[in-house]
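ok so i was messing around last nite and threw this chain in just to see what happens. nothing serious, just curious
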Amino acid sequence: MSSSGNVRHLSQPCVNGDVFSSHAERKSRFMKWMSSFFKGGSKSNRGSVNGGNPSPQFIGEGSMVSRAPVRSLDNRSRSEKEKEELDRAIALSLAEGLKKPNGYGWQPRNNEDLSKSHPDDFDPPYPSYAPNEYNPMGYRVCGGCHREIGYDSYLGCMGTYYHPECFRCHACGHPITEHEFSLSGNESYHKSCFKDLTHPKCEVCFQYIPTNVDGLIEYRCHPFWSQRYCPAHEHDNTARCCSCERLESVNVRYISLGDGRSLCLECMESSIIDTGDCQPLYHSIRDFYEGMNMRLDQQIPMLLVERHALNDAIVKEKNGFHHLPETRGLCLSEELTIASVLKRPRIGGNRFVGMRTRHQKLTRRCEVTAILVLYGLPRLLTGSILAHELMHGWLRLNGYRNLNPEVEEGICQVLAYMWLESEIMPGLKNMPSTSSSGSKKGGKSRADYKLGEFFMHQIYNDASPAYGGGFRAANTAVNKYGLRRTLDHIRLTGSFPV
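result:
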C-alpha cells in the first residue's frame, strides 16, 4: 500500500513495530519545545509596563485588540502547573504515536526532505537507542543454515525464508531449483524424489505401477511374500515359481523344469530331482508316522515323476479327490505303467537338460499301489506332499473307507501340517522330528525355514472346501481331542468330533 501525506514506509529498522524514534527521544524533543515556549511567554510578560498591564497586540491593519487581564482561580504554584501541563502533553504525544500503524512514521527520504525538516527534529548529541532484540524491517533468517539473509536473494516457503542454496530436498539433500516441488508436512522434496518415496514400484519390472482408468494406483500383492507387481504380469506369461508362487523379476532368471513349470533359485537350492534322492526323505517320514504309533506295515513304492506322467495317472485313478488345477502328489491304487525320473538332470542355461526316465510297471499288492510326487520341488514341500499321501495310504490300509473328501483330505492335510511343524519348529507338541536327515546339503538355511512357514500358511489358508475347509475342521478336532481320538471318531462316524 502506498503512503500519503507525511506517512512513508520506513527504510530504516523499526523497534518492536513502532517508529524508529524512541520514547526518550520524543520526550527530549518535546521538552526543548516546551522550554522555548515558556521562554517566549515570560519575555512577553517581562516586557509589559504601566502597572503590569500588557501592551496591545496588532492583529492586522486597522485592527487593535487589547487583552483583558485574566485572574487565575488556581492557587497552585507555577511549577506544579507547568509539570501537570508537561505530563499531559507527553501523554497526548504518546497516544498519537500509538494510533499510527506499525512500521510507519515520518522520516526524510533524501537530502531535500532533510533540509525542510525542523531543526529541533534532530538531536546529534544524543546517541540512538535500540533494545536487545533487534528485528528491523526486512530482517530474515534462513531456515536452512539459520544465518541472516540480509539483502541477498531468497526463497520463501510456508512462512520460512531460505538462501537459494539452502532450500534442499529432504530425501536427496540437493538444492531444489525447479519451479514446482512437493511438500509433505514441513518437509520439501523434488517431485521425482517424492514420487520415489510414495509411488510404489513393481517388483517384477521395477517400473512405477501405472494407474487404472479411475486414476488410482492398482497392483497385486502376494499375501505371504508381500511381492507387489503390476496386474498385467498375471497375463503376460511372466514365469511364476511352482513352489513359492513368486513371480520372476527382470533381473533374475528362473529355472525351467521342462514340463511347463519354473523354479526360483531359492527353491532350487533344496530341490529333490530324482527318485533316488528322495528315498532318505521318504523313509524319514515313515519313521515320523511310526513315532506317532501309526506304523505303515506295507512297503509302498514311491516315485518322482514329471507333470504329464502324474496327470495321466490321475486320469486313470478311480479313488480319491484331486486338488485342481494343480495336483502335486497321488496315492495310487490302480495298476499301471509309469515313467519315473531315474537320473538327476544337469542345468544348462536356465533349464534342465539330459533328464533320464524309466518306465516302471506298478502291480497292486495291497490297497495302495504306489505314491507319486512331482519332481523338482524343495525338500520341505516334497516332504509335506509325502506326509499327505502316506496318510491316504494309512487310512486305506487300516479300513477307513468311503470317507467324504472334506474328512479324508482334511485329516491328510493335518498330518502334512504336523510334519512341517516338526521340521521348522522342533520340539513343538513333542512331535518326532525328521530334521536329522537334513536337506540334500545337510542342514536347513533361513530360506528353508521361511519356505516351511509359507507351506504351512498355504495349508492353513487354502480356500477350497475339501483341502482348506477340511483341514481347519480336522485341525480344530485334533487340537481339542488329540489325533488318536479324532481318528477313532472318524472310523465310527465318518466325521470329525465337535
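not much to say yet. The chain has twelve helices and 21 strands.
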